[in-house]
Every structure is written in structure tokens, then in C-alpha cells.
Design a protein that fits this description.
This protein has seven helices and no strands. It is mainly alpha-helical. The longest helix is centred in the middle third of the chain and has 33 residues.
Length: 161
């Protein structure tokens, strides 16, 4: 299945998609691609907000975008690997059969699959600005991301040998 079809399928059942992705074998190259595409989508979602802030404050847009790019494409992946490792350790402590690869794919896929809502948040932040609209879309994104992540963790644990 293509990534876009998998993203749509994730909105119906995140556990099934992650179970299928992890069932293809431990492919770290795919996990890394999911992570980097997810981080790239977060960066792209930030650009309308950064443009708005630069326009309102007179700050240098290039500097803001450069810092955000550095944060999301170089620093965030390291932190997300750490979070995936911690979730693996917690799952193992709770008696789950979740593998480290399954924990990574569940987190990285959740970030990528929830990115359409994050892109909507970015547009809301850029065109509407701070307010109830931006907060509402942000809360929806967090809820969907957590649903995908926890459902993916369950799915990866069920598919574990």
C-alpha cells in the first residue's frame, strides 16, 4: 500500500496499519523515512505561523525558518528516538511483548499519519492567528496523535512474535 493510503487507513484503525507495517520485518530504513517525513511535515506546518510572526514583529523570517528546520530535522528525530525507547521500556515493564522496532514505528507513524491535521493547524496559525480556532485544531491534533500512537503500540505488540 502507498503511504497516503496507509495514512487514510490509519484514521480507521491505527493498530491494524502499524501491525501490517511491523509485520513486513524490521526495516529500520522505513522507520527512519517515516520519522524524517513526519518531522518534515511538522516543519512545513510551522512555516505559515513563522511567516505571520515575522510579518507582525519584523523579525527575520530566514532566521526563524532556519532555526525551526534545524530543530525539526536534526534535534527532534533524536528526541523521538529517545521517546520511542522509553515507551518500549515502559511497555516491557508492563509485560508487553512490544519490540523496540514496533515502538519506533508506532511513534514515527503516528507523527506522519497525524500530519494532515498538523498542516491544518499551521494554516490556522498563519491565517487566523492565536485564538480558539488555533487551540481547537491543536487539541484535535494532539488527541489524534495520541490515538494513533497508543493504537499503534497495541497493534505492534499484537503483531510481535
Amino acid at each position: 500500500m502507498s503511504a497516503t493510503r496507509d495514512i487514510v487507513a490509519t484514521y480507521r484503525g491505527p493498530g491494524q496499519v502499524v501491525r501490517r507495517l511491523t509485520g513486513q520485518g524490521p526495516r529500520e530504513d522505513r522507520a527512519l523515512i517515516y520519522l524524517m517525513l513526519g518531522c518534515l511535515m511538522v516543519f512545513v506546518a510551522q512555516t505559515p505561523r513563522l511567516a505571520r510572526e515575522a510579518h507582525e514583529t519584523g523579525a527575520d523570517l530566514g532566521m526563524s525558518m532556519g532555526g525551526t528546520l534545524m530543530a525539526w530535522l536534526f534535534i527532534a528525530p533524536l528526541l523521538l528516538y529517545l521517546i520511542a525507547s522509553l515507551s518500549h521500556l515502559v511497555a516491557r515493564a508492563l509485560g508487553s511483548s512490544l519490540s523496540g522496532f514496533g515502538a519506533r514505528v508506532a511513534l514515527f507513524w503516528a507523527l506522519l499519519a497525524a500530519s494532515p491535521i498538523l498542516l491544518l493547524w499551521g494554516l490556522t496559525a498563519g491565517f487566523v492567528g492565536p485564538g480558539i480556532e488555533m487551540t481547537s485544531v491543536g487539541v484535535i491534533w494532539v488527541a489524534v496523535f495520541l490515538w494513533f500512537w497508543l493504537g499503534g503500540l497495541r497493534g505492534a505488540a499484537k503483531g510481535a512474535p
